[in-house]
Structure formats: structure tokens, C-alpha cells
Amino acid sequence: MHTLLPFIRLFKFAKFPLILGLVLMILGLGSSMSLLTVSGWFLAATAIAGLGTLFNFFYPSASVRGLAIGRTVMRYFEKIVTHDATFRILSKLRVQVFEKIIPLSPAVLNRYRNSDLLNRLVSDVDTLDSLYLRLLAPFFTAVFVIIAITIGLSFINIPLALGLGLFLLILLIIIPTVFYRLGQQFGERLIQARATYRTQFLEFIQAQAELLLFNAEDRLKEKMSVTEKTWQEDQAKEAKLSGFSTALVLFLNGLLISGMLWFASNANFGTDEYRTAYIALFTFAALAAFEIIMPLGAAFLHIGQVIAAAERVTEIIEQKPLVEFNGNEEFETKVRLISAKNLNFSYPEQETLVLKNLTLDLEQGKKIAILGKTGSGKSSLLQLLVRNYDANQGELFIGRKTHFRLFRRNITPPNLFFNSTCSRIQRYTSSKFTICKCG
């Protein structure tokens, strides 16, 4: 759960919409429960009054209409405000993710496939929208409404109100805990299967020509089929458990209604003429209570996927850049363009030196061809020049400046390194050029 803390901290950028959305959610759920509770009492009291007794039905009927309209209005504005808050948080999260990714060199990003990187930036970030809408807001709303309805009903009968509130609080603890544990079993697999399937699908689309040429299309289709089957199996498990959570809540709600009907029929409601109508009031309050608990089972079943998505996004934004650019330097035009002295370089997590004691001086205004066999270090030298990597030892100067940032902004890195002969290169240029050999 600690993985979610950095994303919860983003809530500070949308405090007012989040709080307003929570208040509207509480008012909407409270109006819905109050509507059913008051309706139960109103119907029972009207039946008891019959035709021969004076009964003021204007106030109760006005309450029912007001609560019905209030519930509709609250639900409408709740959807607008909560989704607006969620979009604000997601936009801030996407900006934060890109702020972390932009300084990373291609050497760091090359650890991930392009499709996997895209999946983390789009699908995994979108999965995090459930954190507020489906998890935190419904849970805190349930806590507040349970406390409020317990306090409200205690003015009529304290034991029944405390019993109802205690039963709902126990369910509020047990059901999210149980379905959180169940969702952990396949939540991470679901996220990983989705990412794997999209990666394989993009590879299938991009490599169509090669797959058809080498008759390897069926093999990749089989791999996609296996991944899709695993993904669908986990989705089926999630759907079954979601249905089970609904059935379990309905079953427990039925037990609650039966128990409330039993205890309310034996409770003491005083000597009021319509005291027996309170039996219907408490029974309908128990019936309305399922709205509090119903969404929590499926929501906490989904939390495993939210945590897995958060871990995948965190893995990206916690990457450290191999090369850091600090300060601004002005480029000097009348000095040697590139100068390398005793340059040693090896790729990360590799001991073999790709470049060893390389010394190089390149003047401005000249065209340079660097020749060498495959693996001699031509591309590695280019990686150092554009600062995708930093050298292990030695000095590399760009216009007498070490680690010159302006160079990377102004010079594009086309592949100017040929493993060819001078005569073939002369066909492409009539200018003077200098040849350096690597390896």
C-alpha cells in the first residue's frame, strides 16, 4: 500500500474539488438512505391512520419529494466534480511523469520496449483514476454516513441504532479486507498480461513483412493467443469475484433486514399512536444500508491492479539519468570542435572497454568519416558525443567545454560513421574530408 502514497500526495493539487466531491457523495448517499427510510415510515404511518383518523401527510410527502430531488441533484453534481478532480490529478501525474522521463537519456529508456513504455504512460496511469473514485471516496463516504445514520436513529431508539451502526462498521472492515486479499492474487497478473499482449500485438503489426517473409506469423499468433487466454482467465476470475461480492452483500443485507425486523418488533417505541410505524422505519433503514457496502467489495477487488499499475509507473519515474546537464554555456566558434584525450568507455554493467585510450582532435568546418570494423566503437563514440553516456575515464571537450549541453541541442546525430573505403565515400562528396580509423 505504501506504493500509493506518492500518488495520494498529488491530491493536494486538487484539494477543493476533492473535498467538494466527497461532500456531494456523502449528501447523495445520505439523501438516498433518508429517502427510503422516510418512505418506509410514511407508508406504514399512512396505513395505520386509515380513513378515519386525521393525519398530516403534507410534511412527510414534501420530505420525500425533497429528498428525491436532492438525491438526483447531488448525484449529478457529484459525478461532475469528482471526475473533474480525477482528471486534474491525472493531468498533474502525466506532467510529473514526463518531467521525470525527459531528462533520461535514450540509454535508460532503451531498457524498456517502446510499446511497454507507452503502456505504462497511458494504460497504467489511467488505471490510477480508480484510486479516488472507486476506493478512497466511497470508503470515507461509507464511514461518515454510517456514523450519521447511527446518530440520527439513536434519537428514536438507541439500542437498534447502535446495533445497525456496529453491524455496518464490521462489514466495512471485513468486506474490503477480504476482497483486497482476493484481488491481490491476480491484480498484478492482469496488469502484466495486458502490457504483454499489447507489446506482442504491436510487434505483430510492425513486423508484418518479416513475419510473412520468414513464415513466422503463426508462431507469434500462438504466443498472442496464450497471453490473451491468460488475460481472459484472470478477467473471468475478477468478474466472478465481483459477482460474488454483490451476492454476499445482498445475502448479508437480507440477514440484517430479518434481524432488524425481529428486534424492532420487540423494541419499545413509547406510547405514540404511530409507534409501530418505527418498525418499518428501522427495517427500511437496514434495507437502504446495502447502498453503503455494495460498491466496496468490487472496488477493493480492483486495488491489486491499482497497486501494480502504481509500481510500474513508479519504476519509470524513479530511474536516475546516466547523464546530467547543468548550467548554460555559450558555444565558441573559433576553437577546435571536438577533442578527446585518453578516453575509456564501457557500457553500464559491462566490464569490457568499448573505447580504450582514445585520443581525437576534430577541427570545425571539416567533414569527417570514421571507419572501422563492426564492434570497433564507432557508434559508441557517437553515443558519447551526443551524451547518451558519459565516459569512464578521460576528457571529452566540445569547443573547449566539457559536457557541453548546447552541442546536443544544435547538432542532430545522423549516422555519419561508415565502414567503407575512401573511394566509395568520395562518390558522395566533393569536399575535403579527414578519415579516422577505429579499432
Automatic annotation (TrEMBL):
The chain crosses the membrane at residues 16-35, 41-59, 135-156, 162-182, 247-265, 277-303. Pfam families: ABC_membrane (PF00664), ABC_tran (PF00005). GO terms for biological process: amino acid transport. CDD domains: ABC_6TM_CydC. One of its GO terms (cellular component) is plasma membrane. It is found in: Cell inner membrane. The keyword Acetylation does not apply. Residues 19-308 form the ABC transmembrane type-1 domain. It comes from the Bacteria. It catalyses: glutathione(in) + ATP + H2O = glutathione(out) + ADP + phosphate + H(+); L-cysteine(in) + ATP + H2O = L-cysteine(out) + ADP + phosphate + H(+). GO terms for molecular function: ABC-type transporter activity; ATP binding; ATP hydrolysis activity; ATPase-coupled lipid transmembrane transporter activity. Keywords: Amino-acid transport, ATP-binding, Cell inner membrane, Cell membrane, Membrane, Nucleotide-binding, Translocase, Transmembrane, Transmembrane helix, Transport. The keyword Heme does not apply. It is a multi-pass membrane protein. Forms a heterodimer with CydD. PANTHER family: ATP-BINDING CASSETTE SUB-FAMILY B, TRANSPORT ATP-BINDING PROTEIN CYDC. Belongs to the ABC transporter superfamily. Cysteine exporter (TC 3.A.1.129.1) family. This is Glutathione/L-cysteine transport system ATP-binding/permease protein CydC. It comes from Haemophilus influenzae 22.4-21. The lineage of its organism: Bacteria, Pseudomonadati, Pseudomonadota, Gammaproteobacteria, Pasteurellales.
